[in-house]
Amino acid sequence: MHLHKYEKIWLVFGIASLIVFLSVVGVSAFSQDHTPAGGMETIDPKKVNETAPFDNPGVTQLDEDTYQATIVAMAFGYQVPDLRVPVGKEIIFKVTSTDVVHSLTIDDTKVNMMVVPGRITTKSYTFEEPGTYLILCNEYCGTGHHMMYTEIEVYEE
Fold first, then answer.
1. What is the phi/psi pair of residue 7, to 5°?
2. Lower CB count within 10 Å: N or C terminus of the chain?
3. How does 35-74 read in b/e, with b if 16+ C-beta sit within 10 Å?
4. What is the dihedral of CA 37, 39, 45, 47, to 10 degrees?
5. On the CB side of 1, how many CA atoms lie within 13 Å of its CA?
């Protein structure tokens, strides 16, 4: 089989690009200790309501400047009482699902997390502006998906 000069050039260019790309991804993932977004904690989806901190969802103060918001996602809703957090404080969101894959997206912020059954997803965020923020599920989870939302109130101390 005879390859034309330009075909050889494009093959070499394509293979070299692939090697460079895979090398960059490999170095980034392994040498810099990257893990999946949210961490590697696991939980039994059938025992979420019996496992701390998901047995008591809501906002708890961890120290003077840090709060934890524990949220359980389930078909067509979030199991959480009123979410109220102070502006300018670090909020650690801990979220899991009891049934199918969901997401937790807080509108007008950089919080966007996949919520997978059997996994605990964690994300830290500090709200800079007070107000009421909409929390949505962006992962289609069934016929009632459009009803899956809640709100978080960020207030001035």
1. -65, -40
2. N
3. eeebeeeebebeebeeeeebeebebeeeeeeebbbbbbbb
4. -150
5. 3
Q: Which two tokens stand for residue 132?
A: 């009421």
Read out DSSP for 70-132? Answer: EEEEETTEEE---EEEETTSEEEEEEEESSS-EEEEETTSS-EEEE-BTB-EEEEEE--S-EE
The helix/strand/coil state of 67 is strand
The three-class DSSP label of residue 25 is: helix
Task: Quick: pLDDT tens for 79-124.
Answer: 888 899 999 999 999 999 999 999 999 999 989 999 999 999 999 9
Matching residue, tokens 């977004």: 37
Position 67, amino acid = Y
The CA distance from 107 to 70, in Å, is: 18
Say what the pTM is.
0.76
Biggest CA–CA distance in the chain, Å, is: 76
Q: Are 150 and 135 in contact (CB under 8 A)?
A: yes
